[in-house]
Specification:
The protein has 9 helices and 11 strands. The protein is 39% helix and 17% strand. Helix 1 crosses helix 2, helix 6 packs across helix 7 and helix 7 runs parallel beside helix 8. The structure holds zinc ion.
Amino acid sequence: MLDALAEAADTVRGQEAAAVGVAAAGVIDPVTGTVTSATDTIRDWAGTALAAGLAARTGLMVACDNDVRAAAATEVAALSGPDGSLLYVSVGTGVGGAVAVAGRLLHGVSGMAGHLGHLPSPEATGLPCTCGATGHLEAIAAGPAIAARYAHATETTAGPLQRVAAYAGHGDPHAVSAITLGARAIGRAMGGLANAFGPERVVVAGGVPRIGALYWDALCEAFTAELMAPLRELRPVAPHVGHDAAVLGAAALTHTLPLHTPSTNGASR
Ligand SMILES: [Zn+2]
C-alpha cells in the first residue's frame, strides 16, 4: 500500500512539491502518523507507520489523518466564523464522522474522535459490528447493513444498495423498511449528538444519503424529533464539496497537522 501511494505521489508531484497530505481509511493518529486501528477492508492496515513509511519513500514531509475527518475539514471552512462547531457523518460502506468544536476538528486519543459509526444504536441491538462489538450504528446504517437487512427480511442474497433503493421506489415494503430504519438510526444519533455539542452545522455525506428522498426525509424526521428547543431550526445538510472533499482536505492537512519528516521519522510542526 505504501509503495502504491509513493508511486501515485511520484506521478503527480511537481518540482515545487514540499509535502504530502494523506487522507486514509481507519483510525489514524496524526501525531504519531500511524494507523492505530482498522477493519479488514485493507488487510494488515492496522499498525502501519503511514507517515514515516511514506516520508521515507518519497523524501517529502507527510501529514496524515482519517479520510472522513479530512473531508470534514472542507466543511469547517464553510462555518460562519472561526469559532463555529460542526457535526459531520459519512454513510457509505461504513459509517465515519468528525466533530469540530470552536473551529477545530477533534482528534482524541490515538486519533479516535469522530468515529460515529460506533455509537450504540437502539436500532442495531444485538447486531455484530465490524469493530467486534454489537449494537453499533454502523451495523444497521451502513450501505451493506441496509442491503443485508433487506436480504434477511426477504430470504434472498444481499445485493447492492442501489437495487434495494430501486425496489423501494416500486413500493417494496421490506426495501422501504430497511432503508428508513438505517436513515432513522443515523438521524436519531446525530440529533442526540447535536444536543450534546450544539453545532451550527450538521453535514450528512457519503453515498447512502444520495439514494433518494425516502432516505433523506426519514433521517431528517428522526433528527428533528431528538432536538431540544434551542436547536429546533437546525437541519442536516449535504456537504458543499463533492467527491473531491477528501482530496482537498488531504492537501490542507499539511498546513494544520504535524509534518513527519523523512530524515528523523519524527513529527514537527
Ligand atoms: Zn462498532
